[in-house]
Amino acid sequence: MDPMRECETAAPADIEARAADWLIRRRDGAGWREADRLALDAWLAESSAHLMAYWRLETAWSRADRLNALPKQVSANGLPARGRRLFPRLARTVAVLALFGGALAGARYFLPRVNAVTYQTGIGGHRIVALADGSKIELNTDTALRVSGDARQQNVSLEKGEAYFQIRHNPSRQFVVVAGGQRIVDLGTKFVVRDDINRVQVSLVEGSARLEPLNDSATARPVLLRPGDVAVATEHGVSLSRQPQAMMVSALSWRRDLLIFNNTPLAQVAEEFNRYNKRKLVVMGDDARSMGVGGNFQADNVAVFARVAQGVLGLHVESHSGEIVISR
Predict the structure, then answer these.
(1) Which CATH architecture has domain 257-327?
(2) Do 197 and 227 meet the contact criterion of CB atoms below 8 Å apart?
(3) Burial, 81: exposed, middle or buried (Cβ in 10 Å; 0-12, 13-18, 19+)?
(4) What residue spans define the domains of the chain?
(5) pLDDT averaged over the chain?
(6) How many CB atoms lie within 10 A of CB 10?
(7) Non-local CB neighbours of 82 within 8 Å, separated by 6+ positions
(8) For 132-156, how does the pLDDT look when each residue is reduced to its tens digit (9 = 90+)?
(9) pTM over 0.85
(10) At residue 116, does pLDDT exceed 80?
(11) Is 231 within 8 Å of 240 (Cβ atoms)?
């Protein structure tokens, strides 16, 4: 099941229970690790409902500070030492539950508003989203993402597709992108994130960013990206490579509705065209699939490319309903 859709359909009571568990673990402090913080951040980034539930409980917890005096009064009456040690946490937990109803009713007055907005494009679509902080997000073809946040953090969840981020860095307000099982933290950056099936690719154009796994793993470690770095994350780990500036520019040619190929196998060329067009290219035969292709093409004009394949590359082209078949 899609984890984003699962969090949207979770019962409010289940979300509140999970938020309470996270809050108690973090406030208790014992055994709280960096991996726990990352896991909490990922859970909060999944849904605005998660954020609201956590803030409501955190506010209620803070209001329970006045109960700190209660253990002192009880200890004077001879509460055993073990009970005195456990009582502060117990009192706070009970206080959170008792105050939750009031916090829920009054949340609209004293909590910051968190609005989650979904943006998407269809096949061949291109959209620019301007955020209030001056940052911009460009959505490529067949892309969907959700934006939410508060005064402390801006969150973007890339659910599918590809997007180019131009982030106006604010050290007091973290910008986080979640894609697949990865979390990208802006450190003053321009970068591209592409979320394919079982694969997330992050290309760093300018500035720096930190790529880190959402889940704790003994083999997964955060990766600091610099301009020219391309990180590919799969279930087997993260691979890092360098890319010349010219290739970075070519990879962003979709922003101008262009596809640029440089001795690219025809099979890969067809895959790229198929991202932008409802009429699909089908390449038959290993000889044709491995043939190198170069040139600049309009992303949304697959018919022109088919004529080039026939007239210039000498390939056989057949047009069918919904697809164009290319072969030797």
Answers:
(1) 3-Layer(bab) Sandwich (3.55)
(2) no
(3) exposed
(4) 3-110, 117-248, 257-327
(5) 80
(6) 15
(7) none
(8) 889 999 999 999 999 998 888 999 9
(9) no
(10) yes
(11) yes
